[in-house]
Amino acid sequence: MAEAAGLALGVVALAGVFKDCIDLFSYIEAARELGSDFKLLETRLDVEKTLLLQWAERVGLVSGERDQRLCDAKTQPAVNAILESMRLLLGESEELQNRYGLSLEGQAMAKTHQPRLHVKESTSEDKRLGDRRRQRFLRAFGDLTVHDNDYRQFRKTPTINKIRWAIRDKDKFEDLVQKLSDFVAKLNALVPHQQKENVQMVKEDIRSIANSVRLEVLGAATGRRDLVADEAAKALDDSCRRRILDAIWYRKMDDRRNDVSTPFAGTYRWAFESCGAWSDLTSWLRSGSAIYWFSGKAGSGKSTIMKFLYSHSTTRQLLEEWAENCKLTIGDFFFWGLGSEEQKSLTGLTRAILYEVLESDHSLIQLLLPNMWRYTYGSDDPKISPPSPAEIQRALTRMASLDQFQTRKYCFFIDGLDEYSGRYSDGISFITTLAEMTNIKFVVSSRPISECVQAFSSKPLLQLQDLTEGDIQKYVDGVIGTHPYMIKLLDADEVGATTILTDVVSKASGVFLWVILACQSLLQGFGACDRIPELRARVDELPEELQDLFQYMLLKIDRRYQAHAARMLRLRYVSYKRTQTIALNALGMALFDEFDVWGSNDLRLQCLTMKEKVTKCELLEGRLTSRCLGLLEVHLPEPDQPSTCICNTFEEHSPLVDSSVEFLQRSLFEFLDEPSVWQLEPLTKADEHTETYAALSFLYLILAEVSSMGLEEGKDTWAVDSILGAMFGYAMYGDYFGAKVDEIGMILLRFRAMMSNVPVFFAENSYWLWYDWKSVFVAGDDVETNSTLLLAVESGMVSFVSRCFEAEEVDVATRRSRFPLLGHALFRTSGQFLQQPIRLSSVAMVRLLLSRGSDPNEDFRDKHGIRTTPWLQWLQKDFTKYWVPDSTLIDIATALVEAGADLGSSLKNGKSVTSAIQEKVSQWKQHSPDDHSSWRGNCRMLLDAIEARQRQKPVTLKFTGPAVDLLHPQIENEVDETGTSTLRRGNKRRRSMRDCAFLFEEFWVNEV
Asked: Residue ranges of the Nephrocystin 3-like N-terminal domain (predicted)?
């Protein structure tokens, strides 16, 4: 018994010796003067340390499940002897210096032993092999030292000197690495392990390294460690492939397909049937080639059937027959004329197809994109640009020459070619060229525009509006024919009632959207108990053309509801036009709809139960039907899109709470996008665009308030943050397009009040909330007024801030908080509000404040109490951690220099200001894309401004970048006949303002 206890105590002692060995490993680093070898040498040491940590974890050295072999009377002393020898080797100063090429780099540190360890997680930038495993060991060791009495009795004093060592002689150091490798091998021999377990541990450690350069060095450093070298090479290849795929992919690639409605039950099954009325799709999928064309009028359901075919299992089965022994890839691209640039351009289409090709076979990446592979393999640049259009075209045309291509087959579904924003001939040519390859074919849909008719009429085709009569009949029977009121009519007059159903199907002419609107009109008639002649009149008076039908529906809105309907339609139209893919939340619309006049600060909201939320959404659904006659409707979220949930709960609940308000069909938006439509009587009562932006902002603000109430600690704050993101975005749009000052001011004031009421844990973890906002004020400050102004400054609301100064007639230099206003514009000085600095920074805001008298050299103390100026603080900021366009940084730097920023001072690191600027300019030039040569010109402009300041001479600068800001007429700006903006600068500085083209695009990079 005593012997067993002694052996158990011996295992605890082993852990202490092992910890010393790991610490001693960490005190050795390569000298920088060794050049490129220093990373190689450090990595070799890391490999041995990692293998040592793997051994400790495998045998459970500091866990509750220890390998019983450690308690063996013969094994334990042997293990202890090896660890003691390793500790002695790494702790012997004279031996390390004379025999192994190390030199003393730092003084001996205090010999103190801290039983409870605080382990700092490595950042992604400095992660090294084994970091994660070392952190796990240290945490477990810390728990052991606190809770294990045996350990505290065994080890009351430190046993090692903590000295930093630098590798000076790489040849001698090789001997040390070899010696350590031998020790690790002996430990593994004493307590053998299974090879499979070892491989898994090596893979885990290598996967933790995201840094490609480190992976490359690891592969070169491992030498005879074949397993580590092989896994490092595989991990490096995988990392490069993933980074290239991520660069090609874009976030909205699948948005349009996901937005297309699911077909009505039982429809479109005829597509797989053989019939002489159209080219046999089943035969084409099974054995055909080149292109199959779906032609159809607007509203005939082209996108719906394309989504149906793309996702249907029968499609894959038939294509598998075509593929035979080849591996099959099915891809898609849904054009969207109202979407982002990628969603409607040839670049977006080619990137989507290339992504599908490469994602299906990663081995093709280095073969099709050799230049991009070479760059990525040797670079750790996080900003890998997508391949150029020419590079993508070369990659896709190169496929046919590859051996791998002969073993694969591809079928792509391309929807809405008529919504392509470029020349139709370019898009058609691209598709037909690829379709000439025997292993690639396309299913294409479009309206029958002349270019598509000319290119595809000789291909297998299907004219959709001629073939959907059966599906329309099913829809009419399902919606109208089974309605209780229609059943009563059929009982009373079967012939008359049946005629109504027949007429609706016949008059639809294959256009699904028309029949949907017709059915809604009949349903209203059912609600009014219309007789058969009255119902027939409803059908007869419906125009056959969609545009005429939309106008007819608008004019049919009850006069008492016209203003209400116009507001609802305007809200959805403006939100759709500005954000395209962002849904208008139904619960938010329901809350907004409850108040006759929006924007009242007297509004008191309360926490809602789930049942109350559902009730509000149900009421909204009914009001949309009665007010808008079905032109707007509530859409339930897709079941595979949990991110739409705003309830801050993972409990099962009604999807109606997470639903959105949508147009009946996209064609309705196209109809409303004609300015003349808003002159129709019902729509003239709608708010102006500027008021609508502010209304949308208020809508999302009250939704955020309700959603944040009743939050429990531990819940995800993403949903409310995304709502607040929409609130700020619409407020910024409203500011940009001229919303009233009191409207924007009310929103900001209410938001500040919300910040005071949300739970602390939520505010601390929120992206948008300004948790510590009170800390920026001192005694005597007008917190209510100034906090609103600071929110506007930090949000980049130029118009609001400008008009505030004009109305208050207060000089901008008046301190509104502990920090200068310019500091708030540059840094988000609050420290929490808009947490990622500069992400929304506006060049226009910076120039406005400078034009009003803000001083870049104003002395103040930062949040750490250190004296500085806005200029010096900005110059020392590391912007590489944040997404920020280089052009924004260039323009801000230029504005600050023109405004008299001190060029003669030095930074904390001793560098002069001018040399620091030159370094940043070189950095910006290096990272600017080749097709943005204007950025490089603006870098030259910045240097010219510095030179002019030094010479004290005025300079005239020409901007060749994005559009010039004409927002403020008091700022001088000349535009010549070529469209180039000439800004005159000199002693009368701050008289020009340049618009930051990214001002509003930047916000939508983080769309809700």
From this structure: 266-447
Clarify whether residues 136 and 189 are in a common domain: yes
In a 3-state reduction of DSSP, which class is residue 725?
helix
Beta-bridge partner residues of 981 = 959, 975
Q: 497 and 576, same structural domain?
A: no
Residue 469 — pLDDT band, cuts 50, 70, 90? Answer: confident
Per-residue tokens: 763:
């505010």
Q: Please state the φ and ψ torsions of residue 333, each to the nearest 5 degrees.
A: -155, 125
Q: Round to whole Å and give the CA distance between 948 and 631.
A: 61
- At 734-757, the pLDDT tens digits run 888 888 888 888 888 888 778 777
Residues 63 and 196 in one domain: yes
Mark which of 524, 542, 560 sits at the end of a domain: 542
pLDDT for residue 309 is more than 80: yes
Counted residue by residue, the chain has a size of: 1008
Contact 1007, 579 (CB under 8 A): yes
Contact 41, 128 (CB under 8 A): no
Residue 870 domain flag: no
Quote the pLDDT of residue 937: 66
pLDDT per position as a tens digit, 502-533? 888 888 877 777 888 888 889 989 988 999 99
3-class secondary structure, 441 = strand
H-helix or E-strand containing 635?
strand 632-635
Q: Are residues 486 and 555 in the same domain?
A: no
Residue carrying the six token digits 């790494």:
90
Q: Looking at the domain assignment, is residue 34 inside a domain?
A: yes
The reported pLDDT for the residue numbered 85 is 86
In which domain, by residue range, is 374 found? 255-466
What one-character-per-residue DSSP string does 22-55 give?
Answer: HHHHHTEEE-GGGTTHHHHHHHHHHHHHHHHHHH
Instruction: Find the distance separating the first CA and the last CA of the chain, reported in whole Å.
Output: 65
Cα–Cα distance for residue pair 515/541, rounded to 1 Å: 13
pLDDT > 60? residue 776: no
Residue with tokens 């008059």: 507
pLDDT above 90 for 467: no
Query: In terms of DSSP H, where are the helices of 249-382?
Result: 255-259, 281-287, 302-311, 313-323, 346-360, 365-368, 370-377
Instruction: Provide the pairing of β-strand 440-446 with 408-415.
Output: parallel
Nearest residue to 582 via CA among 725, 460, 705 = 725
668: its two tokens:
């309705």
DSSP letters, 146-181, are HH-HHHHHH--S-------EEE--HHHHHHHHHHHH
Helix/strand number for the chain, H first, E second: 43, 16
For residue 390, the surrounding DSSP H or E stretch is: helix 389-398
Q: What is the mean pLDDT of the segment spanning 312-326?
A: 94
Q: Do 518 and 647 lie in a common domain? A: no
Query: What is the pLDDT, as a whole number, of residue 209?
Result: 53
What's the CATH code of the domain at 429? 3.40.50.300
Tell me: the pLDDT tens digits for 478-496?
899 999 999 999 998 999 8
Residue of 668, 682, 600 whose CA lies nearest to 631: 668
- Dist CA 412 CA 306 (whole Å): 11
Let me know whether 369 and 279 are in one domain.
Answer: yes
Residue 589: closest CA among 747, 702, 699, 727: 699
Sheet holding 584-585, edge to edge: 584-585, 660-663, 632-635
pLDDT at position 443 over 90: yes
Per-residue pLDDT for 330 more than 90?
yes
Q: What angle do CA 637, 639, 642 make, to 5 degrees?
A: 80
Number of domains in the chain: 5
Q: Which tokens sit at 862?
A: 């930062």
CB atoms within 10 A of CB 857: 14
Residue 146 — very low, low, confident or very high, per pLDDT cuts 50/70/90? Answer: very low
Q: Are residues 407 and 274 part of one domain?
A: yes
